[in-house]
Design brief:
The complex is a heterotrimer of chains A (about 425), B (about 325) and C (about 290). Chain A is about 75% helix and about 0% strand. With about 425 residues, chain A is an all-alpha fold. Chain A has one domain: Formate dehydrogenase/DMSO reductase domain (Formate dehydrogenase/DMSO reductase fold), CATH 1.20.1630.10. Chain A is globular, with a radius of gyration of 23 Å. Chain B is about 20% helix and about 15% strand. Chain B has a six-stranded mixed beta sheet. A two-stranded antiparallel ribbon of chain B has the order 1-2. With about 290 residues, chain C is an alpha+beta fold. The longest helix of chain C has about 35 residues, at about 260-290. Chain C is elongated, with a radius of gyration of 33 Å. At the B-C interface, helix 1, strand 1, strand 2, strand 10 and strand 12 of B face helix 1, strand 1, strand 2, strand 6 and helix 2 of C.
């Protein structure tokens, strides 16, 4: 029958595949970065945070900006999966799993990198035993854990029908992977009752995860906004961070879309239409982020209050100017320019734009954290000269790269064992389209 | 000056005075008044002494020691602080010459590593036409401390005597407090601190802030261990120009060892102020403006402070 | 790591050099001299003690000497007049009291000399310091309209006679120092040996009952040494402690979170996690539904 051939074809196309040569090389490179990062962390544990270039003034460096970056990217799960799903958008269905996998992976490494930044990581349990509910860090710990659990659930529920397919397809093999599939989802029969329960649960999750996603990035922004420092003392920070998060998340999804499409030959499922639509979403988000940026920089620049003026001048025309304008141009303006045109929303330009957005966003997070710390209220005196500047040491770069590689590794691993595009949903949608 | 002598005398007197007042009555009674010396517990062992009028009087042995054996203070008591006191410091900017004795004494007493200055003497000049002056900054021990607000594990805390301390056995090294403090008072132990062996072997005491631990924060602590003994913080005693004055707002009195003032009069008469009052942190350190400076600003430029001094812009 | 490696050899070599310098000093006569301050103190006309303060000049600065041993004597440095031993602490100070054994000798005269002798040990030349004192009483009383009257009398021919032109300071006792009662630093006694000081510290906090300890003191007087007398008066404001400690606030300890914050946090937390728990139950339901089919 036509339908069943379609189903099998779809299934066959979307099954997770073994790694080819490139896959293995990719994984190996990531593992290498992780290993170097782990070694650098070992040095840090042994000697203390002195291995970094941080000092008493720049007491937060790229570990923290990396943390913010990870939390930002993890919001993509709620955007693509939850928001678009609730808006009854159907073209985003193939992208939901990519988004959730990126979200879960990013939130794991957000937690890990924050432990790396701690001076006494072995006292991590103190957060539970002695936690103060007045502290924004405790709020952050609570919301991140909550978001992690919800993201896992949001990855799990839609995975159940696909697990059934995977179990069926691998029925004869008794590999560990198959055992995992059976453990996770052998109870799923696909009967109406289960489908009803699952749909209801997914809807509830989508509704719940949106405010929680807003919470995590707002609370993360409050790690800065609850201080007095110029550049951080802003009521704009919640919206500023969230809009930035949606933008970088969307950019990450675009990059992932392109890569998986190429690697797994998914041109039929991630079509040019998807890129076009994502392009439009990206433009909208970039414009929104640009709006918040203008609010964030133009308004204090108009006033040029004493502590702010030195900080802003540094960003606009001083030490950090090249980085600042790079982040604005590459992270927002040029992508907007490219994506406003239909030609710009083709897969390859979209991929380039996605990379630009992500890279620009990483440097933007760095610009949020470090320059402010170099402009304290009281002059930086009676301290070693080295405290007057900051450039990350090789250990910091290694650990940061390691954490990014780790995130990619988790994404790669999850994509290896689970279908990157929901099989059952694709089948269902194809049928609905045919009808 | 006889600064050290005086402070020793004043402490000693608390015990002796009470005993002297009781002399002839009941020498075993311990009629301490509330202001000082009430921590010294009588041992019950009496010693016979001669009085001015040639009589033999008895006194508890514990009162005879100039530096008393104070009972060990537990962590919960350290977190609570001294009852009835509210410490305050007054820094007279018209006297500061950037001698740096305060820094030296503080760094030595707390065994700080090079580059870790709890006291920073800043070269200040707010605007082109305003006066240049030397401004020593310590921790402000704010009444609404932003650092305490953000600490996730209660490692830094405000006590009832106004002092904000750090528990290095609890600190997780997240450095949120360093980001939150607008006065840049806190320093971090980026590496293993260099300590004398005997000090490193002791258990950590919040009041002495020693021994310092790697990966934790530290800052000026107003020397509560000295205050318990009725002595002044090290910086106050060390300054040759009497820049620092320390005291208790509940007694309305501050002293730099040689001179004592009524605090409210001093601040009012000399137009004292606090740093960054508009931030609402309510600091406990008051500054007297650098009017009628007793030393020209330039005389402090010869001093080389620890690390490079960045000239004011 | 590097710093540590440099530090210890330096410290070690310093330690090696110190005893060498001591013994070298013992041999040559260029030993340092101890500068000794010996003073007499009388408290409330009852307790008497001697204070010894030892310092030395090092590179032009005065440095206190700790661990210096002194023997104190009354009038003559013989064993019968031995008044006690004193060992200076790290700040170079020591105190000693008069033992009852000297009672007779003490009562025999109105003027006495104290002698502090340090021995030939250690890095310093032996020293001998004398301080003489005339027995005196300092009295404190209060007069009309918050004035403080202090009177000094000395023992002369068995009688207590007032002394003229002695400087007396009048203050309020604070913890760690004395606060002068007015802007006048000190007062000089008239022919009746009396001074009258006006109390200009209205409203100054006393203890919880408003009690202040008034102090009259004679400091470093050539004849009388240091005299100090105290009196309690209810002239202070009642000390009201601002009860801000341990209240619920953003900067309080763990269990003192403001109620409004607790309410916000718990409502958000409970509402979200009840959804999570509900979802977990849904999984269980789905598992069960799978068995039925």
């Amino acid at each position: 029958m036509e339908n069943s051939i379609d189903n099998n074809a779809i299934t066959h196309d979307l099954l997770p595949m073994r790694f080819g040569r490139w896959g293995k090389i990719w994984t190996f490179i990531l593992l290498l970065f992780c290993a170097v990062g782990a070694y650098a962390y070992f040095l840090q544990l042994k000697n203390g945070l002195v291995v970094t270039d941080m000092g008493d003034y720049v007491s937060w460096g790229i570990y923290i900006s990396n943390f913010v970056f990870f939390v930002a990217i993890s919001l993509v799960g709620s955007l693509i999966t939850a928001v678009l799903r609730l808006a009854n958008v159907h073209w985003s269905t193939p992208l939901t799993r990519i988004a959730e996998i990126i979200a879960v992976s990013a939130i794991i490494f957000a937690s890990l990198i924050i432990i790396v930044d701690m001076g006494r990581p072995e006292r991590f349990l103190s957060l539970l035993l002695h936690g103060r509910l007045q502290s924004p860090i405790i709020w952050d710990v609570i919301v991140i854990s909550t978001y992690f659990v919800l993201s896992l659930l949001l990855l799990y529920f839609p995975l159940l029908p696909d697990l059934k397919i995977l179990i069926r397809v691998n029925a004869n093999s008794s590999s560990r992977l198959n055992k995992l599939y059976r453990l996770l989802g052998s109870f799923w029969k696909g009967n109406p009752e289960q489908v009803r329960l699952s749909e209801k649960a997914i809807n509830i999750m989508c509704i719940t995860i949106i405010p929680v996603a807003f919470c995590i990035h707002t609370v993360t922004s409050w790690l800065f906004a609850t201080t007095y420092r110029p550049g951080w003392d802003s009521t704009n920070f919640g919206g500023y961070f969230i809009s930035g998060a949606f933008l970088v998340g969307a950019g990450a999804v675009v990059v992932a879309m392109f890569v998986f499409r190429k690697a797994y030959h998914l041109e039929k499922y991630i079509t040019e239409l998807h890129f076009d639509k994502m392009g439009k979403v990206l433009v909208m988000l970039a414009l929104l982020y640009l709006y918040f940026n203008i609010n964030e920089y133009l308004v204090p620049a108009f006033k040029m209050r004493k502590p702010e003026s030195a900080h802003l001048l540094d960003l606009f025309a001083g030490e950090f100017a090249p980085l600042f304008w790079f982040a604005i141009l590459v992270g927002m303006l040029i992508p907007i320019g490219i994506l406003l045109f239909k030609k710009g929303r083709k897969p390859l330009p979209m991929f380039v734009v996605g990379v630009m957005v992500v890279v620009g966003a990483w440097f933007k997070r760095y610009l949020i954290v470090t320059p402010t710390l170099l402009h304290p209220f009281l002059p930086m005196q009676d301290v070693p000269e080295k405290y007057h500047h900051y450039f990350p040491s090789w250990q910091e770069w290694a650990i940061t790269m390691g954490s990014l590689a780790g995130t990619l590794l988790v994404i790669t691993f999850l994509a290896r064992i689970f279908p990157i595009i929901p099989i059952q949903e694709t089948i269902t949608e194809q049928h609905e389209k045919a009808v | 000056m006889n600064q050290e002598n005086n402070s020793r005398r004043e402490f000693l007197l608390s015990g002796l005075t009470a005993a002297a007042l009781a002399a002839g009555c009941s020498p075993k009674k311990n009629p301490f008044d509330e202001y000082a010396g009430n921590e010294v517990k009588p041992t019950g062992e009496m010693v016979k002494l001669l009085s001015v009028d040639g009589e033999v009087i008895e006194m508890d042995k514990a009162f005879l020691k100039p530096v008393p054996d104070l009972p060990h203070v537990s962590n919960s008591e350290e977190r609570k602080g001294m009852e009835g006191k509210k410490f305050v410091m007054v820094i007279d900017l018209s006297r500061c010459k950037n001698v740096g004795a305060c820094k030296k004494a503080c760094n030595h007493a707390h065994q700080l590593n090079p580059g870790q200055n709890w006291i920073k003497i800043l070269e200040m000049q707010e605007a082109v036409h305003t006066a240049p002056y030397w401004e020593p900054t310590t921790c402000m021990h704010c009444d609404e401390p932003p650092c305490v607000k953000v600490c996730p594990v209660d490692a830094t805390f405000k006590r009832q005597d106004g002092i904000v301390l750090i528990d290095s056995d609890r600190c997780i090294g997240c450095r949120f407090c360093m980001a939150a403090c607008p006065y840049s008072s806190r320093v971090f132990n980026w590496e293993e601190p260099i300590l004398e062996k005997e000090v490193a072997a002791q258990p950590y005491s919040c009041e002495t802030s020693m021994p310092q631990k790697k990966g934790t924060v530290s800052k000026c602590d107003f020397c509560p261990d000295m205050a318990r003994m009725g002595e002044l913080p090290h910086c106050v005693s060390a300054c040759p120009n009497g820049v620092f004055a320390f005291g208790d707002i509940n007694e309305d009195s501050v002293t730099n060892g040689a001179e004592t003032w009524r605090f409210s009069d001093l601040i009012r008469d000399k137009a004292g102020y606090r740093l960054m009052e508009d931030l609402g942190t309510k600091p406990s350190v008051y500054y007297l403006p650098p009017a009628n400076r007793t030393f020209p600003f330039e005389s402090g430029l010869e001093k080389d402070s620890t690390g490079a001094v960045t000239p004011a812009k | 790591m590097k710093r540590l490696c440099n530090f210890y050899p330096l410290l070690f070599s310093l330690c090696l050099q110190l005893p060498a310098s001591f013994s070298a000093n013992a041999q040559d006569s260029a030993r340092k001299s101890l500068l000794v301050d010996l003073s007499y103190h009388s408290l409330n006309n009852a307790v008497v003690y001697l204070s010894v303060h030892a310092k030395t000049k090092e590179k032009g600065k005065f440095v206190p000497v700790g661990g210096a041993r002194f023997h104190l004597y009354l009038d003559k440095d013989s064993a019968a007049c031995f008044a006690g031993d004193a060992l200076t602490d790290t700040k170079g100070a020591a105190i000693t009291f008069l033992p009852p054994s000297l009672q007779h000798q003490w009562n025999s005269a109105a003027t006495h000399t104290f002698i502090a002798v340090s021995g030939d040990e250690g890095a310093f030349n032996p020293s001998r310091t004398e301080a003489s004192v005339v027995k005196a009483h300092l009295e404190i009383d209060t007069g009309q309209g918050r004035t403080i009257i202090a009177k000094i009398v000395e023992l002369k021919n068995g009688e207590w006679v007032p002394v003229k032109a002695v400087e007396i300071k009048v203050a309020i006792r604070r913890s760690g120092s004395d606060l002068a009662v007015s802007d006048k630093d000190s007062y000089t006694t008239d022919s009746t040996g009396t001074i009258s000081a006006e109390f200009h510290r209205d409203g100054i906090p006393g203890d919880k009952n408003g009690l202040l300890t008034l102090v009259a003191k004679v400091e470093d007087n050539d004849s009388y040494g240091n005299l100090r007398v105290e009196k309690s008066e209810p002239w202070g404001a009642v000390l009201k402690l601002a009860d801000t400690f341990d209240k619920r606030s953003l900067w309080a300890a763990r269990f003192k979170t403001p109620i409004w914050l607790l309410f916000m946090e718990y409502s958000i937390f409970l509402s979200v996690w009840s959804v999570v728990i509900y979802l977990v139950f849904q999984i269980i339901k789905i598992i069960k539904a799978g068995r039925l089919a």
